[in-house]
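**User:** Hello, beginner here. Are you able to go through the protein record under this note? It all follows right here:
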Amino acid sequence: MPTFAEKVFHGCAAGRGLVYIKSNGDVWPCPFVEVKTGNVRETSFREIYEESPVFMNLRNRENTLNGLCGDCRYRTICGGWRGRALAYSGDYLAEDPRCFIRN
């Protein structure tokens, strides 16, 4: 049964409620996760959001996050900051190197 925190807090919203659509139609999970998931001029937004592997990975944190974020008991509440993970490692699913819980 989910805890109150799991019902209320969802951590990084990249691809989980926040989406960035560039003026050329490219769709990113957020302005800080510069990963093209599709283009709304070529594919419907719904199809991109529901079927893109990037969006599916971001919605399924329990099975996709790597490193310490993947092992963390708070991964469904926090999940680390995906933009920072990408900036430091080049992998949006990598651990957040500036995690406030373990630092």
Summary: The helical segments are 4-8, 45-51, 53-59, 61-64, 67-71, 82-89. Residues 66 and 94 are 5 Å apart (CA to CA). The chain has a mean pLDDT of 91. The two ends are 29 Å apart (CA to CA).
